[in-house]
Every structure is written in structure tokens, then in C-alpha cells.
Amino acid sequence: MIADRVRSFAGNSRANVAMTFALSLIPICLAVGAGVDYTNAAARESQMNAYADAAALAAVKPAILSQGDSASTTTATNTFNAQAEAFAGVNYSPSNLTVTVVDSVASRTVTVAWTATSHNAFAAILGLANTTLGGSAKAVGALAPNINFYLLLDSSPSQAIAATPAGINTMVQNTASQGGCAFGCHESNPGNDNLGNPNGEDNYALARSLGVALRIDNVTAAAEGLMTTAQTTEDANQATYEMEIDTFDVTVNSIQSLTSNLSQAAQSASNISMLEVYDQNCLTQLNCNNDEDTNYDLAMSTINTDMPNPGNGTRSPGDTPQEVLFLVTDGVEDEYQLLPQNPTTMDPGRQQYLMNSNTDWCSAIKNRGIRIAVLYTEYLPLPTNAWYENFDNSGNGISSFQSQIAQQLQTCASPGLYYEVETGGDITAALDSLFQTAVQTSYLSQ
In angstroms, rounded to a whole number, what is the distance separating the alpha carbons of residues 309 and 307? Predict the structure, then answer.
């Protein structure tokens, strides 16, 4: 009987299925447990990496970049720890966080690296209490450099031309006794020239009475407006911008010494004015200089001496700001130069020609690492003006080289920093655009 029962049990296939199922539960439970814990660990690691991303990005915001490396380190550390330490299911210690900050000339790189462990729900089954986690994130922030800007603005008599074609026509129509002059020339003793204007006034006063804006007015407004643009850009970039404003005619006139007070610079810019002469051909009653009132070489040599060698504009100890020269002009010099002589003039001392045709000041300045931004206020052709067509009585005048002015000034400018405004164009918008280009390209200038 006993033997029969044994043989019956051994031959029962239902018992084998039950045993096989029971044995298979072990790897199934292990697989399910491992799967759940692995999924949880992966999700937690992904979330921790998201915290690292946020920490790295917070550390390269403009406001933080302006405060130096320690500020970036502190910001990244605090941002990450505040989230990671409160994350349920993850065992994290601040000692397992590494924040690395590396500065270059134009950027700061912040790397956030971390390690932690994820608590396993099936620790008893798997024999593993925790799963190791780890990751890192990197963010790069562009460092807006500190820049000193030097505005060198043409205030010579050529800037007295009416600012728009309509204004030019108005001036021409109201100066018939002068042959139709489009310039609002500023003279303290216009009676010597028999201009024929009402009450013996000069053309500058005539333009004012006719409501005609002159180019110097637009240049003044543009310089004032630029200070507001500079202040807004400075705040947004968390950089430091300083401004110096000078004008040039027969000499160099200091309007505003280098300052970081851009509101003060704007107020000073409102004082920009064009050169007032005694009368035609005479600077003063005792100094008749043949209207040689645009001394470009003196202006450039003076500003070259005034500007220091540039730095990279970073916040690193010992570094100095970048330097940018803004030249706003119509591109024609009129000065005394004994040698070399202008081959088109009969006056052996008068140089009325393209700027930068004697000494190459543009190259000299750029070779020092200073960038030059040029705003060319178009020298408008004036075929009705005898001086424009034939200033030296030999068949030559500014008309003979007028087509070369733009190219000469473009060559003077640093790459990408040339802008041309036609008569009637918006000088304020042009100067603002040139400024923004100068600021943006400063990131890549070194």
C-alpha cells in the first residue's frame, strides 16, 4: 500500500506544476523588484540632473557673472542643495557636490557634479539597500566686457549743412544773394561777408529763424540719445561702460572727460556745438586761416594719446576695460599740412582732401588693439556750390574725390563697425545701432 501511494504521488503531474511555479516565483520577484528599484533610481537621477542644470544656469546669469567666481560657486551650490536635500527617496550630502568655475576672456563655464544614492524598495529581496546615482551639468555664460567709449565728433563748418534735402532746398532758396548756400555757417562778424540775410545775420541764425535743422543738431541729439542706450545696455549686461565726448574742428574740444556717470555724459552732450568763426576765411579777427577748420590729424593724434592701451574688459584682478573709438564725420579734412601736399590744390599749405591721407592714424590706433567705429554722415554732393566744385580755382573741388570718401572711412573702421547715413537719415538710430554692434562684437574681439 505504501509503495502504491509513493508511485501515485510521483506520477501526479499536478504536483510538478505547483512545485515548478513555486520555484519560478523567486526570479520573478527578483526581476520585478530590480525593475521597480531601477526605474525609481533612473527617475531620481534624472531629477537630480535637472537640479544640476538649474544650478549651473543660475550661476551664469548676468547679475552673477558681474560678481566674480565666488558668486557663481555660491549660487550653484545653494541652488542645487536647496532642491537635492529635500528630494524624498534620495540620500544626498552636500559634501558630495563639486562646483567648478572656469573663466576665459569672454565667458565663464560652471560645472556642477554630484553623487547620491537611491533607496531601494526591495532591499530585503535584493540584498542591496541603495543604488548609486551620479551626474553633472555644465553651463557657459558670456561675460559682457567693461568698455570705455571715446566719441570723437566732427564739429567743423561742414557740419553746418542742413540735415535734410528739404532743409537744403530751403537754405538755397533763401540765400540767393550768396549764390544759394546750403550751409548754416556760424560767424560772429557776418557783416564782413555781405551775406544779404535779414538784419545782417549769419546763415546759422538764418537757419534757426527758418526752422531748418542742421547736421550738427542731429549729431548732438544722437550723442545725447546714445547715453540712454548705453545706460540701458550696461544695466542689462551687468557691465561697466564709461564715456568720453570730444569734438574736433580747428582744434579738439573736450565736452566730457571719461566718466561712468552716463547721465552726466548725456547732459554734457547737449552742449555740443559747431565752430563759430569770425567771418569767411578768418577764424578770429587776427587769425585768417583760409577756412582750414577741420584738423583731422590733430584730432586723431590727440585721441590716440588720450586713450590707454586696452585690456580684455574682464573682472579679473589687474585687467582693464576694452577701448572703442567712435568717429562721427563727413570724411573731409581741411587743415594746414606743409608736406605732403594735396596734388589738386594751388595752396601749398592747405590740405582739403580725404581723411587719413597723410598719417595713417586709423592703423596706428587699431594696431594698439583699440577698435574704431565709424559713422559716416554723407558728404552730400552740392553742384550748386562753387566751393564744392572748384575750391582752388584750378577746376578741382571736393567733387573730384567725393566718391572716395565712404571707402576711405570704411577702411578706417574695424571689421563690422562702419555705418553710413545719408542726408536726411536717422543719425540717432544709426549711432545706437553702431553702439550695439560694438558691444556685441566685443565678446569676440580678443
Answer: 7
Per the domain annotation, does 344 fall within a domain? yes
Residue pair 188/285 in contact by the 8 Å Cβ criterion? no
Q: For 409, list phi and psi in degrees, rounded to 5.
A: -75, -35
Q: How many helices (H) and strands (E) does the chain have?
A: 14, 12
Average pLDDT on 142-160 reads 91
122 and 155 in a single domain? The answer is: no
61-80: pLDDT as tens digits: 877 877 778 999 999 999 99
For 383, the domain range is 147-161+214-444
Assess whether 92 and 155 both reside in one domain: no
Evaluate whether 150 touches 126 at the Cβ level (below 8 Å): no
Whether pTM > 0.85 for this model: the answer is no
Q: What residues does 246 pair with on adjacent strands?
A: 152, 254
Residue ranges of E strands in 41-192: 90-91, 97-103, 107-119, 130-142, 147-154
Which tens digits make up the pLDDT trace of 229-288? Answer: 999 999 888 889 999 999 999 999 999 999 999 999 999 999 999 999 999 889 999 999
Q: How many domains does the chain have?
A: 2
DSSP run (H or E) holding 258? strand 252-259
